[in-house]
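tool=predict chain=A
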Amino acid sequence: MAPPREIKTGPEPEPIPPSPAVAHPGGVPEERYLSGPQPRGFEFVWTARVFLEFLEGFRSLHFVGPCVTVFGSARFHEGHPYYVLGRALGGQLAGAGFTVMTGGGPGLMEAANRGARERSGRSIGCNIELPREQLPNPYLDKMVLFRHFFVRKVMLMKYSYAFVGLPGGFGTMDEVFEAATLIQTGKISDFPVVFMGSEYWAPMLDFMRNTQVAQGTIDQADFDRLLVTDDPAEATNCISEAATRKFGLTYKKVRRRLWIFGER
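tool=predict ok
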């Protein structure tokens, strides 16, 4: 149920011309929406389409089971040590009974999904439409395509009992620190947040410890909440222990899907 790329609205009063420094980009609805106040009709239709995208995500992912979301770069491919690490992690998580959820793309997302598939676990991808198409990896049992990053991030958070950050760039850091912020502010439960690839993350963790904690912009407890490990078994054991002891996760009969709600 991906929204169409163009939204047409009826005639509107002539808008105030923008200054050259903030001119609207060429007609892409999301960019247009985020570039300042728009005609009311446009904003209403855009918001309605976002609602439908949320609804499609909820209906598609309602039965995916207890998930662990794995974030990571699309730019490390098969044969790289980080790919090997992500694949091993996916297998360990699947062996512990978790559904492995990723952004659905290539690289380390593929590695985690592949590891889960190889252990006969469930493998889910929440992919995103990008100007340069991010193709879904071939190891997904279910893939949901989103247009908006913020809708996609809600889905990656909503169904998971833990969050793992494999090495990555802006997107990975955005996603894993979104999870950390939601936990810090009490918006979601105190789920495990795990960083894997300790050498890659070491400079960032040093900055957090020696600057952010030292100057009080985060608490020591915020930093201590993070688990840093290169051992997929240790990460999985930490996640399993938290899910069962802290959050009461148990194994029980799967709920029946209801076609009337579009569940599948």
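The chain has two domains: 28-62, 65-246. Confidence is low (pLDDT under 50) at residues 1-27.
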